[in-house]
Amino acid sequence: MMKLIKVPVTPLPILLNADAKEALEAKIKEEIAKYEAEAEDIRAYVQSLIITDLAQANDAIAYAKGLKEMVKTRTAVMEPAINDLHKFHKVLTTFRGVATAGLTEGADKLEAGVRKWKADEERKRADEAARRQRDIEAQQRKEREEHEAAIRKQQEDERIAEALNAEKQGYTDEEIEEILTAPPEPVYMPPVQRVITSAAPVKISGLRNKKVSYTGKVVDIKTLCRAIAEGRIPSTIIDVNQGQLNKLVNIMPGVTIPGVVVSKDI
User: Fold this and answer.
1) Rounded to two decimals, what is the model's pTM?
2) How far apart are CA 266 and CA 259, in angstroms?
């Protein structure tokens, strides 16, 4: 058995050890708590704000602009770190792929080989079972034919004996001929008993069952929607293109779409 190469893989190799990772998580949680408190204060202020004149309206707009500027500032500060983490995630993903590719490919090829052997073996067993079935039925037919032939011979012997006896008793040639040419009595023969022989499946411990999956393709969206409307198909199988729906209700104000409620965004 081939020995596998052991590759030491840590959650964040080189960059962070366990202590550094824990300290970073604690710092981020601390900052999140501050921002959550700030968000609650903003929500409370905005909720309490009542605009009654132009000055208050201008103040509200200025405050909103200040909030949006802060969004830009914080995004600019955080975006580089997020991009770096995305890049590092790609590096780790590639590393994981390289580290597991050979293992996965080897396991898949071995299992594919075993599945092929298993299919061949089960086909051989099925062919052998079918051959045994044919042999059994052929033997039964042979025994049936031999039994029927013996009964026919016995009937023929009995007709000859009856004709000879009739001749001794002075029957005419026509009467004797009638005895000899009389149709034989029907012979009841039981039907061939079909004995089903089946092949035992090949069982291999540890072999994963290969999952068979199917893919559905919509070829007639109207028919599909009709089936959904009739309740024969769950509506969860389709997704609404919200962007196209919004575009439609904006270019056609007042349009009535069955099943859709149009609301105005303020």
Assistant:
1) 0.44
2) 23
